[in-house]
Write a structure and sequence with these properties.
single chain; 291 residues; alpha/beta; TIM Barrel; 8-stranded parallel β-sheet; carbohydrate metabolism; lyase; EC 4.1.2.57; Aldolase_TIM
């Protein structure tokens, strides 16, 4: 059986410069916040995702797509550049308590063999980490996900994202990110996608220390995501995280969020988002060259 490895989703430098367009109800909320005057239909999201894939994938080592809105469409329309690997989100989001993603399970509708036939190289799983929920359940879900990926020759990417506890305990986001890494950083996945410490803000030395602390607990290659980080700060965040041991990024908002809701989306993606993604890729290559 053909088995993919993380080299199949990296740049020639060995670093990761990966684009995410798998946001679901969160993206609908972004369109609404940008002043959409009509209901944000599924078609609006699909069109944006397919356009983003077509225009931005030539500059990414991989692109993360979701089954709900765009996986089939990008495959059928051949929207992903030949030099860019496809990653499919294998997480099903369960809304509740007034938020679009209150809990997550492995999406049983994702067929790993079909993903492979469609040219996919990897699957991704979001793991919500709360201090008052059972760590064994999280670990078992990750183990099952890793088995699903590896038995089908696909790369396994986990994305632990921290959330406040369900029951009233104080929430320290920075400590939670470390605790999640301690728990899941040696869980047998191929790649760990992590929230940027301190949301990328503050003095460079403080960021570097926080990232080095994180690096101590992640026993696999890791990349940062851009949610919660000001897009102007994200290039520095990538550089600092890579200085501390990260191998790149898997990010969406820092690349394309500023064009949501603008007229002529395709032109805006070309004029505004392509240069951002190109620069981020250059940073990844520069940092890998120093190793």
């Amino acid at each position: 059986m053909n088995r993919y490895t993380i080299k199949d989703i990296t740049r020639p430098s060995g670093g990761f410069a990966m684009l995410a367009v798998d946001q679901r109800e969160a993206m609908r909320l972004m369109f609404a916040a940008a002043g959409a005057t009509t209901p944000v239909t599924d078609g609006v999201l699909t069109d944006f995702k397919v356009n983003a894939a077509r225009i931005l994938s030539p500059y990414a080592s991989a692109i993360l797509v979701d089954q709900q809105f765009c996986y089939r469409q990008v495959v059928e329309q051949k929207a992903i550049a030949s030099n860019c690997a496809m990653i499919v989100a294998a997480d099903a989001f369960i809304p509740g308590n007034g938020i679009p993603v209150d809990s997550v399970v492995i999406d049983q509708h994702v067929d790993p063999q079909q993903v492979k036939r469609d040219g996919g190289k990897a699957l991704k799983l979001l793991v919500l980490w709360r201090s008052d929920e059972d760590p064994q359940q999280r670990l078992e879900m990750v183990r099952a996900f890793n088995q699903l990926c590896h038995s089908n020759g696909l790369v396994s990417i986990i994305e632990p994202v921290v959330r406040p506890p369900r029951h009233g305990d104080a929430f320290d986001r920075e400590e939670a990110i470390i605790h999640a890494a301690k728990e899941l950083g040696d869980s047998g996945a191929d790649l760990y996608k992590v929230e940027m410490p301190l949301a990328g803000k503050g003095l460079q030395q403080a960021l570097l220390s926080a990232c080095r602390r994180l690096n101590e607990h992640i026993n696999m290659p890791w990349v940062i995501l851009s949610s919660g980080v000001d897009e102007k700060l994200f290039p520095r965040a990538v550089s600092v995280a890579m200085t501390a041991g990260a191998s790149g990024f898997l990010a969406g908002r820092a690349v394309w969020s500023s064009v949501i809701g603008l007229p002529d989306t395709e032109m805006m993606l070309r004029d505004l988002s392509v240069p951002k993604l190109q620069r981020l890729g250059e940073i990844v290559d520069e940092m890998m060259a120093r190793r």
